[in-house]
Every structure is written in C-alpha cells, then in structure tokens.
Amino acid sequence: MPSVNPSKEVSNANYLWISYFYSYLNEHGRAGFVMAASATDSNGHDRDIRRQLVSTGAVDVMLSVGTNFFYTKSLPCTLWFFDKGKKLDLRDNVLFIDSRNYYTAVDRTLNEWSPWQMKNLNAIVWLHRGETEKYHALVAGYCTALDMAADCTLAAIQEKLTIAKEACWLTDKFGDGEYRDIPGLCKAATLQEIEEKNWSLTPGAYVGVEAQQTDDVDFAERMREIHAELLTLQQQSDALMETISRNWEEMGV
Known about the structure:
Low-confidence stretches: none
Helix content: 40-55%
Strand order of the largest sheet: 1-3-2-4-7
Structural class: alpha+beta
Shape: globular
Order of helices and strands: HEHEEEEEHHHEHHH
Number of strands: 7
C-alpha cells in the first residue's frame, strides 16, 4: 500500500490507481493509462510498489509526454502500458520512449501528435515486439500517401512535405525494420538496468540525450534519397505481404 501521512491518510493516490489497473488484468490482459510524470520515480512505499510491478515482467512500455497536451493541464505526464501476456523473451525488458520533443504545435498553448506521428510512435513498439510486418505496412502506407497526395495548391504541397518529413523521421532511425535504441528517443532496458537506477521508470533516465548534428543537409537531395528508400521498402513490404497471403492460402484460410 502507498504510504500514509500523519493523519493516517493516503496523501497521493497515484499508486492506488496503478495497482488497481494491474490487479484487474487477467493472464493475457493489457492496460494503458495516463499518470503524473512524478510517479515514475517517487520514493518511499511508491518505489517498493514500483519494484514489485517491474519484477513481475508485466510493465511493457513507458512513454514520456511533453507539456500542453491537455486543454486544462499544461504539465507533462507519462503513459504507462502493462501487458501480462508479454513474450517470454521480452519479460525482462521495459521499452522506454521519450516523446517530449516529438509533437505538432497546434497553437501557443496546445500540442498534439499528428496521425502520422502517432503511427511512428506505435512503430517503435511494433519493432521492439518483433512485429516487423506492421512496420512494413506503415512504410507502404507512406508510399501510397505520397503518391496520392496532390501538389496543385500550397496546402497540398505542405501536406506532402509533412508526410515526407515523418517518413524520413521513421526510416532514418529504423531503416529496413529492425529495432535499435535511439539516443534521446527510445531504449529497451533490462530489469537489471532498472534496478541499477533504483527502480525509476522515467524514460529520460534511460534514453539519454540525442546527439546534436550540424544541419547541412541538402533537402532536395535528401528527398530523392527518401523516395528511393521508400520505394525499396515498399517492394520489400509487397514481397512480405505476398508471402503472408501465400502462407494463409496453404493453410486453407
């Protein structure tokens, strides 16, 4: 149970909610919920509860969200994801994602993830789980969107550039579809690494800081490279889907 104050009251209910979500999952259950950012490394009884939760192997993904993602609250938060049915080879790992610098500004007081940005964040989880077919399907979706997007108006050109930018963001990091730790963005940490950090579940403590690069890229040339890369990935995706369809047919499905 969480610690109590001198008045014998639970002064913070964060871990009551966290334990509540976990306790109601069946052996294959999943849960995702929003929690105050401070809950990922609070001390006292909270840390003891967090240690027990992590030790079960059911903590799946921890994702940091930046400020101004809610209409009534400007503070950052963390998305927690539990999965009691995790694959055995992943039970000793927690995927940490720090998305605080990855968003679209709606206005001065509100940020959001665009649909493509949400798909890209999903893709990190897919690759971590070995679900590469979903990654290739997303890459194929980028190719289709770029081919279909009109370019006869300024707004249409801007939309096409936005799609290309997000495609570049994803494929530059994960290429043909193999998960890897990206400094400043994602890290698959072992339970031993989490224990070494005193059972903190703060993504920033694991992903580190993104390496600074000099922005001397020829945008036109980079766009041509992206287009070539996407075409190659689309061909690979088409071949993969053809193989999957053939396997389904052989199984009589």
